[in-house]
Amino acid sequence: MEKAIRLIALVFGIVFVGTAVSEITIAKIDRLKEAQFVASADVVSIRDRERQLDCLAKNIYHEAASEPFEGKVAVAQVTMNRAESGKFPSDVCAVVYQKNVFMERVVCQFSWYCQNGGKPPIRSTAMYDESYKVAKKVLLENFRLDVMKDALYYHADYVNPQWGKEKIGKIGRHIFYRDPKHGRN
After folding, report:
1. 180 backbone φψ class: left, alpha, beta (φ>0; ψ -120 to 50)
2. Per-residue confidence in pLDDT tens, the chain, 185 aa
3. Strand bridging mode 99-102 / 105-108
4. In whole angstroms, how far apart are CA 60 and each of 49, 55, 73, 112, 133?
């Protein structure tokens, strides 16, 4: 009888320890999977990165092809600031191609996109190549102009949209603004 009780206690102990080890192992595996999922959410595929580069380069080209280097960087930086702001789409291409309806009219965030069905031609490959190089510096190397860290808006100096935004400065033919309601980084 004593042997039977010991055997039952031993079996019970083995089952208990096995169950505990199993539960702990499953919990650790679940935490590792969750950590891996969170880390992979930050990873951008090569295809996505190339798509973002193309969108950013087109925006720089159509908005600032004839601007100085700093002007091109500033236009790219506004695009990136918007994507990182939480106030605009978080994807670079979604920022570039964003449309809104204003007074029953479709308005593009960047005017070139509303022209020619969103596909205006690249007329100068040299200027596009320079725009693409700037896009790479800004998107891949995180190159930034300190003065533009809060810039979310700009317009050409020959228009006056009368925005209620705080002027940051002017580079080339563009005047840059921050949104005073958005706060500073």
Report:
1. alpha
2. 787 788 787 777 787 777 777 788 777 776 766 665 544 456 778 999 999 999 999 999 999 999 999 999 999 999 999 999 999 999 999 999 998 877 788 888 888 888 867 788 889 999 999 999 999 999 999 999 999 999 999 999 999 888 889 999 999 999 999 987 755 44
3. antiparallel
4. 16, 9, 8, 11, 10
DSSP annotation string for 111-162: GGGGSGGG------HHHHHHHHHHHHHHHTS----GGGTT--EEEETT----
DSSP string spanning the chain?
-HHHHHHHHHHHHHHHHHHHHHHHHHHHHHHHHHHHHHHHHT---HHHHHHHHHHHHHHHHHHHTTS-HHHHHHHHHHHHHHHHHSSS-SSHHHHHT-EEEETTEEEESSGGGGSGGG------HHHHHHHHHHHHHHHTS----GGGTT--EEEETT-----SSEEEEEETTEEEEE-TTT---
* Whole-prediction pTM: 0.73
